Amino acid sequence: MTLRQKILLMFSLTVILAVTAVAWTVSLRIESLFQTIDRERTTGLVNQFLREYQRRGNEVSQDVERLAKDERITRAAYDLGHGGDAAFYVTEAGDLAPEYQLDYVELVQPDGTVISSAQWPAHFGYKEAAIAKSGAPSFLKEERLDQDRSETGLFAVRTVPGVESSIYIVGGERLDRAFLSDLSPPVGSTLYLYRNATNAFDGSNLISAEGPVSESARYQDIINRTLTSGVQSSVLLTGMGGGAESLNVTAIPLKDRDSSVMAVLLVASSRKELTQALEHIRNLAYGVTAAGILFAILVSLWIAARVSRPVEQLAQAARDVSSGDWDVRVAINSKDEIGELARAFNQMTKELVSQRDRLVQSERVAAWRELARRLAHELKNPLFPLQLTVENMIRARTMSPEIFDEVFTEGSAALTAEIANLKTIIARFSDFSKMPKPQVTEVDMRDVLKRVIRFYEPTLQQREHPISLTTRLPSEELLVSVDLDLMHRALSNLVLNAMDAMPEGGTLTISATRHEANIRTVVADSGMGMTAEERERLFTPYYTTKVEGTGLGLAIVQSVIADHHGAIAVESTPGNGTAFIIDLPGVPGNGDRRER
């Protein structure tokens, strides 16, 4: 075990023992205090919600009373009390319910017959037993919406004052998500409402202010116990799998006037306060062990100064070397292993710089030799006919003037042609040595390809062995930022290469498509293809498989594509043709613009 490991082990044991001792000392007291606070808070929350529930019931009663005094209700009651037709008021409840912000409104005759129902329009003519509770405080009731659906609501029943044979007004508010939201539980508490609509527990009947509860089974036991006993109960639900937190849950039975439990209101209080109390304990423990921690920090700083910092400097120097700065040096501040490593690193970079200089010099010499060899090869062919022409003209000088004139005329034409050939060769080398910087504009790659196709399509058909042309261009825009002239030149080179690869005719295929974030262009021919060795050297300057080629065409194409931040690749097998694949960056936002 090294010294560093021993110090770190000692520090860890000191901190663990100190924190454990302090935490164990005060944990019992904090736990007891937390339980007392939790009970008091739960009791206060339950009382608050009961008061809020009572307030909502009073609001429902007040709303129904106001509705009973409405002039329209008074007229309807008077009319029905004097033989009026009840069918005339079938839709009256539906019109009044939104105005008084009530979810349920029914107009009921003294014999219990429903005149009009807002929540179940087809309920008119049925009997409503709730009128027996007229004038009583608000109460819970199961309200049917149709033959198959029902809801639980908070109701009140009032009569129309001052009218003989009055009608009854049954109004209420449903117990749903909105009802729970209006109760406004404090931070850390959540309200759930279980509607006792079925004989057995049904998780779909448990809702919160956000909607159905995904972990409804977690509350099944306390809900069933409350439904059975009809009294308030509490339970502590500890954390379960999936990250569920511990909750202190109190179930409050909500009963109707007959003491039947119609619903259960759950008040779930988070026990995060316990975590916060334990965090407070840890802070106390940290204070007690501050001296040990401070000592450990000082030791760690010393270790960092002696070991970590030199290592970090070496790592930074290695990154600098990898990024191209081979002249970087590391300061040697010790004679130990770290100092020896720094000396070895400095020696390594010194050797790298020396080897780099030698390599650069060797590559420069090799490049000039290759250039000289290529120039000699290209210039030797036109120089030989120039020499023969001049010698013929010298010999003809001794002959008769007629013969000399004829030889001179032919020789001048030959000299002119060969000199033009020399100029062409020199121009090609000059173009490769000074490629212009692209002047990019945003264009549609389809338009670039169509321009090349229009230029070469007549030539393809006029050859001795015609070449058929196949184009595959999508309907969507393929926007790229390119120099139009340079890209036309590069694509023209590829088309000419494809034509040269098919002297006996064939098929030239030009296509473009979107490939991820790039625009992919493919120029393919059905020629003889290439070997693996030819593909590897294809983009090397001055390499060519043609008798009259300079080997610069594809090198220029690669240079143009690289200047546009693109990539070019070739796929070919002998006898199966060749395909050149160009990937250019698409213009950002191209897809969005197309969708709009």
Number of strand elements: 18
* Estimated helix fraction: 40-55%
Name the structural class.
alpha+beta
CATH class of the largest domain: Alpha Beta
| Main beta sheet strand tally, sense and closure | 6 strands, antiparallel
What is the C-alpha radius of gyration, as a whole number of Å? 47 Å
CATH architecture of the largest domain: 2-Layer Sandwich
> Total domains, how many?
4
Which parts are unreliable, with pLDDT below 50 for 5 consecutive residues or more?
A: 590-596
Sum up the structure in keywords.
596 residues; alpha+beta; Beta-Lactamase; six-stranded antiparallel beta sheet; five-stranded antiparallel beta sheet; 51% helix; elongated; disordered C terminus
Summarize the structure.
With 596 residues, the chain is of the alpha+beta class.
Tell me what you see in this structure.
The chain is of the alpha+beta class. Helix content is 51%, strand content 19%. It is built from 14 helices and 18 strands. Helix 7 packs parallel to helix 8 and helix 8 packs antiparallel against helix 9.
SSE layout and pairing:
Blueprint: H1 3-68, H2 71-81, H3 92-99, E1 104-108, E2 114-117, E3 139-144, E4 150-159, E5 168-174, H4 177-183, E6 189-195, E7 206-208, E8 211-212, H5 220-229, E9 233-237, E10 247-255, E11 261-270, H6 272-288, H7 290-322, H8 337-397, H9 401-433, E12 441-444, H10 445-462, E13 467-472, E14 479-482, H11 484-500, E15 506-515, E16 518-525, H12 532-536, H13 553-563, E17 567-572, E18 578-585, H14 590-595
Parallel strand pairs: 13-15
Antiparallel strand pairs: 1-2, 1-5, 3-4, 4-5, 6-7, 6-11, 7-8, 9-10, 10-11, 12-14, 15-16, 16-18, 17-18
